[in-house]
Specification:
This protein is mostly helical. Helices cover 71% and strands 0% of the residues.
Length: 191
């Protein structure tokens, strides 16, 4: 059995903070956070500087967990189209199981800024699809990333779990080979 990697004390404190916000939300004063985390107010300031910085630290941790989990799962994917569908699925799971982070990100438009790893994940998959002749070569990855994120956010926000929406998000960038690959997949499993 594989041992989990050792994490530093600093990383553990950020993981604890991440779990605190995941379980309790962001609407707490520093005193409430410190009390619920069983640390002193001064310790909170020493570790996290202020509330806004603590939230940013927890969000970065959350985003990195998302990308790490997704990256591990892509090993099983056969092509870029499947990776994009997996990304849609994982995004849906993120919104469901980490709703407090998804809502905060959505309200503040943070999940998709250039500082988060999500945009680079989409760009990487699309570029890989272009190189493997599954995605049209003239696709602007930046524009498509915006399109992807916006549509997927709406998809999970409004719960319209229909394969047609997945097809819509993908179809505009696929070439003939990409369409063939998409048609071979069971979209119902991803919806």
């Amino acid at each position: 059995m594989k041992k989990p990697p050792k994490i530093s004390r600093k990383e553990q404190k950020i993981a604890d903070l991440y779990r605190f916000y995941l379980n309790n939300g962001f609407d707490h004063t520093i005193d409430e956070i410190a009390t619920l985390m069983k640390i002193g107010r001064k310790t909170f300031y020493n570790r996290y500087l202020n509330k806004e910085n603590s939230i940013q630290m927890a969000l970065r941790y959350c985003h990195n967990l998302f990308v790490e989990r997704f990256s591990e799962k892509t090993i099983e994917c056969n092509h870029s189209i499947e990776e994009l569908l997996l990304l849609m699925w994982e995004f849906q799971q993120f919104a469901k199981y980490q709703a407090v982070y998804f809502q905060y990100d959505w309200d503040k438009l943070l999940f998709y800024t250039d500082e988060t790893p999500f945009r680079s994940v989409i760009d990487t998959i699309v570029r890989k699809g272009i190189r493997s002749y599954q995605i049209q070569e003239d696709v602007d990855t930046s524009d498509y990333s915006d399109f992807f994120y916006t549509n997927m956010s709406m998809y999970v926000m409004y719960g319209k779990k229909k394969p047609a929406i997945l097809r819509y998000v993908l179809f505009s960038i696929l070439n003939e080979r990409g369409v063939e690959l998409l048609n071979e997949l069971n979209l119902e499993a991803f919806a």
